[in-house]
Amino acid sequence: MIGSGFRTEVKDCFDLFFPPLCLLCHAPRGKSLDPSLCSCCLDGFLPVTSPCCPRCALPFATIGGNDHVCGECLLQPPDFAWTVAAGLYEEALRHAIHRFKFDGRLNLDRPLARLLETAWQRTAPAWLPDLIVPVPLHPHRLGQRTYNQALLIARELGRSRQLPVDPHLLARILPTVAQAGLTARERHKNLRGAFALTRPLAGEKVLLIDDVMTTGTTARICATVLHSGGAGEVGVAVLARARRNSMLGLETLRSEVEEIS
Ligand SMILES: [Zn+2]
Ligand SMILES: [Zn+2]
Description:
Mean pLDDT: 86
Structural class: alpha/beta
Bound molecules: zinc ion
Number of strands: 6
Largest sheet: 4 strands, parallel
Low-confidence stretches: none
Strand content: 5-15%
């Protein structure tokens, strides 16, 4: 019988000649504690830090102070109770999401979902949903891309937490391209009709999954549709949250996220 000490020695020897590589930058992972990413990439993921809005995870520009509800969530409370983000939509995390979405790097689903799960456990450890629901792509967009990145993350979270994922509960019935050229108000109104529920709910707690939250309009509209269809509390988990005054500018963020979502 081969002992675990021997197996460890064989693995160490194998790793010496074939060092495990980071899934994102392909450099040797070295002593990273993460099983997929190197510590350099992990260090480049910027967390959403306090003070921020607990409802929409918007980070505030001020340094120090307690978390508090932002002006927009105060004026127009969303139909979701809280939002958690794995990090800011900047630097290494933005790069990773682009690789995940643009370049078909589907194997980033597990490490990205792991980051999100860690953030979820830190933010709302006692909150257990009955259902995990990804923001859907319009069938036309799904046909072009062949996969829905939000569904891949939802599946990983569901697998790891042993929770059911329903990829068909929310349906996208209008394509995003219909939003082009519309004002913010028209965009909101039009997007409101873009989603529908495929079956009624009976008070289930839903965790809504999306890749990036910029203005929060998509999550707001999906949460409203879920509530109208009978959902109980809705929480939102996104891979990345954009700052309000992002260096990228709102229009760039919108085009990046909406063009490719
Ligand atoms: Zn790396
Ligand atoms: Zn807010």
